[in-house]
Amino acid sequence: MKKLILLVITLALYPNMAFAQDTAATEEPTYGTGIYVTTQDFSSLRAGPDKSFARIEILPPVLTLEAVGRTADTRWIQVNYDGTLGWVASILLVWTGDVTTLPVDGINPAPFVRRAGAVGVTVRETPIYRTQVTPEDQIGTLPAGVEVELTGRLGQNGFFRFQIKYQGQLYWVGSWNIRVTGGNYLRLLDSAYLFPYGRLILQLEENLAVTVSSFTRIRDVWRRLGQGATVSCTPPPTYARLLLTDADVQIEQKFVPAVNALDAGITSINTAVSAFIDLCNSTDRSLTQVDIDAALLELASAERNLILASSLLEPLRNRNPLLATFAGNNSSNP
Length: 334
What we know:
Distance between the termini: 85 Å
Largest sheet: 5 strands, antiparallel
Number of helices: 7
Structural class: alpha+beta
């Protein structure tokens, strides 16, 4: 009886004690990676990094989860879902943070056998670095002739970087010290997205590809009309868009000419798209040669500007200051 009275008194004095204890008991564990992914569609959470593994759950769109691991080629990401570890195809995700720092093959993975995505061998005594290829970050060297797995990269041309897995640890090395002996290293995640310059290179490449696709479709429409063919109004052609981060362009002013050329090309494409959609929406869908010539003139201007944007992008890609920072001071360069 005394114990019961004491318990009642304790709860009266500290009414939130039991609730606090229950909350602590049910709090989901986190792994402290600082990296989060968000689903873009309904996504399968699987027991391992392949479609052959059992499906644990169907994840809804726009669900943000802590990322805790990855495959070597980063095609699958291991996530923490309500305390359960599972794998999601990275094509269905967007993420924040440096995904290349996640442990390759994940945390406590289900047993599986995989083939290394890309492998290489050191061609000389090779400095290894913890997070970036700078003198202050060097932690040792590897002798010539050591085989390593390639698990990431920074860039793809010139003095770019490789992330390697060696004796279970992740390191960065200069690509000039590695001879690729197997696999396609271009399939590895490029961590350039972490920096404004790198983000703009990637965004311009993608934006150009999408814009060229829009250009080709609407050009084919007007060419067929010019040849006297009948063209369906459904589905309507899509407008091109400028898909760049304005804040990054403000930081990296050297991208402005390429961005302006792309923007001018997009404007001309959309003028031709609007002219066709207006015809489709009109009660009088008859077309004159003047209409065709005006649209083709806009498309010729668009083509010139897209070629200009592409030509301006190439030297920007090759002169990435992030990749050249250490190359001039590296005595190991060939």
